Amino acid sequence: MNIVHLIKIRTMIGIRYSTRLVVLMFGIVIKIPLSRRGYLQCKNEIRMWERYKHLNVLGQLYWECGGIICMRRYAAVDVLISETEAHKFIDTVIGIKHLIPEFDIDKCDLYRAENWGRSGDDYVLIDYGINEYISGLY
Ligand SMILES: Nc1ncnc2c1ncn2[C@@H]1O[C@H](COP(=O)(O)OP(=O)(O)OP(=O)(O)O)[C@@H](O)[C@H]1O
Ligand SMILES: [Mg+2]
């Protein structure tokens, strides 16, 4: 196996953690709660998915089991390259706040690009487990 293969594998598999341990695998992401808040976020994420999947703006959730969820993996939104892109991103955030009343809260970090993924030319929300009660836990 040469260096190019090793780099490819490094970008294919990854781990992030905060309230949840997030394991990024080839085409999927597994989110495992690390705290009560993380557990509530996962439970709420599946609820939100069931309620709003028809809007085509939430990252596709494959299954939830005992607070662990499996989501489709999306390309990261690291930088917004052009001004047009930045405008489109802001419009998407404003739009989702109108469509989904649960997100119209003060402590909502929807403007953080890390919580979004790319699907073709569109943005999809990949971290949508938060609500007013959960955001107030700490
Ligand atoms: N579906 C996905 N596709 C690609 N990357 C993802 C996906 N879901 C999560 N990630 C990556 O994992 C990170 C953490 O995931 P997520 O935000 O859902 O966890 P969290 O527990 O809510 O963390 P935080 O409290 O930091 O927001 C994201 O910022 C993103 O980089
Ligand atoms: Mg997040």
Strand and helix layout:
Layout lengths: L2 H10 L1 E4 L2 E5 L3 E6 L2 H17 L8 E5 L2 E5 L2 E2 L6 H17 L16 E4 L2 E4 L6 H4 L3
Adenosine-5'-triphosphate binds next to β2, β3, α2 and β5.
| Biggest sheet record | 5 strands, antiparallel
Report, as a whole number of angstroms, the end-to-end distance. Answer: 46 Å
Low-confidence stretches: none
Q: Order of helices and strands, N to C?
A: HEEEHEEEHEEH
Secondary structural class: alpha+beta
Percent of residues in β-strands: 25-35%
* Integer-rounded radius of gyration: 15 Å
Count of spatially separate domains: 1
Roughly what is the average pLDDT, rounded to an integer?
88
Could you say which overall geometry the principal axes of the C-alpha atoms support?
globular
Largest sheet, order of strands side by side?
1-2-3-5-4
Bound molecule kinds, no repeats? adenosine-5'-triphosphate, magnesium ion
| Number of separate strands | 8
Helical proportion, percent range:
25-40%
Q: In DSSP terms, counting alpha (H) and pi (I) runs of 4 or more, how many helices?
A: 4
